[in-house]
């Protein structure tokens, strides 16, 4: 028996690099931990890892050849073979004296160009994966009269017109067009702002640079002395005709042409400094129209997807893949409002942090279609109507076809049901448990009874019965919600119960005259018990002691519940003498009997969720004490003593297990006869089992307990 990782779901952790094969239509993402994820059509998902664990700096596909080059932070190059079931490294090349900063592999070329921090450019033979010996030294590339070092190589690309000419961009603002055959510079351009990226026009007569002051410069090869166009897209135009104010650096620019429309200029960054609170953005310039797409997370990299892999043809861009720190977004360029594609990958697992998970195999076959049908109705509108463009690769179902479901609980109170059959992970249905509670008004934070300031709805435990479809959630704010599945929308009030669980130490220390202490021999345990119960005088900010109030408020008005899982009952633990309820640590449900049992360090409660009744509420002292407070000798029942409370307590059980009702009723009556306390007190305790301190609760018979 060997544990073996079959698949990895979720978003790549700390992404650093992005690459796309426009022919095979597969995407590669590198991470700071040295991992590479290769994604294709939904279901095609491959994970591989550099042994060194060094961060991935850059990725380059050998387009349409089933291979990938990775450059890592330990100054090594690796050639991966993607044609086998598990990708593996064919060749590696380590740089010992120089640090790698940029790589470029032209389409259908056998030469890989590698730029370094010292400003030199090396050329690697992609087939043998060894250095060719051809090095473009920085001092040869720039004019000899310029004595200052041009900085690291930040860009390398071959001319679309002539693959024998290489454009080299240096950080300090110098651009050199190098003739590989004659080993000399054809062109040198200088700009007084640092360069971040360079992009060619497909005709090979112009190129565009992005700079650290938020400007874009357009250069013509015929007149390299100065740019023939300089723009600061997000800079404010000054009234006196001066140069616009500088903006944040434009980290990357892409310049893509269209046959029947204006070219697209797409860049990240470049926003003005006066908008400090603006979110990270991608700007799309198409003719005179400028569209700014704000992102939820910082942009790591982006790539424009084009119809052709050939750099010297009209590019015809149709989408932009944007890699964010915690998300992957694809924008549709073919529609004027630039909608995004609906992401088919399970990348949003950690949209809100996962706090618990459950896995279910061999589920009833109708369950996945039913969950999908109710989940599909909740899907957001406004996505692109086109097919997901990353559509490469192939996958088969394999021999394993039994239905598997994974359920994830999240910090914001949401619960997601995923179809995990056949390796893929597809979201079926999302449930928001926080909807049963009232929203907290601003400014009420410290005045409420909340015990958790952040994420008060976080899901701690889940129980699910795939056959009965009963679903139960325990939350961090000491509550349990029971859900039932329905295909129909309802508008109803949410039933709620409050349960009081506490260490009943006070009853032992100062017993009331009519109450017999449940543990006469427990005096030796008192000091430790008192320390366990904690401070009993916690005072709220209003100056009043909180008691018998829950942490959250359940909605009292009728609530519209869409088809799917609908809240049937909310059970909340309440504050006791200024002490907040402890978080629930265990949860069990028996859907056949209609019972839910839950407990924490203070005790155990059993609730009949069919009748919405608390059946049992025991403190930890009763559960773990040295003597059994409910120990009794069996007796024949006396018909003369029948209480109204008898029927009251049995009502919740009689409908579901009538054969046990008689035995429970008999046991309960025997218990009341053995007790030394008055009948009226026993009756009162039975009516309100959750609120009377020191009460002796109903004990279920042994054979019923075993079914929980």
Notes on the protein architecture:
- This protein has 708 residues and is mostly beta strands.
- Among the domains are: 192-235 and 245-342, YVTN repeat-like/Quinoprotein amine dehydrogenase (Methylamine Dehydrogenase, Chain H, 7 Propeller); 351-390 and 401-438 and 454-504 and 549-630, no CATH class.
- It has nine helices and 42 strands.
- A five-stranded mixed beta sheet has the order 32-33-34-38-36. It has a four-stranded antiparallel beta sheet with strand order 1-2-3-4, with no helix packed on it.
- A hairpin with a 4-residue loop joins strand 18 and strand 19.
- Helix 6 (644-654) runs antiparallel to helix 7 and helix 6 packs parallel to helix 8 (679-687).
- It starts with 14 loop residues before the first strand and ends with a helix.
- The model is unreliable at 506-543 and 640-708 (pLDDT under 50).
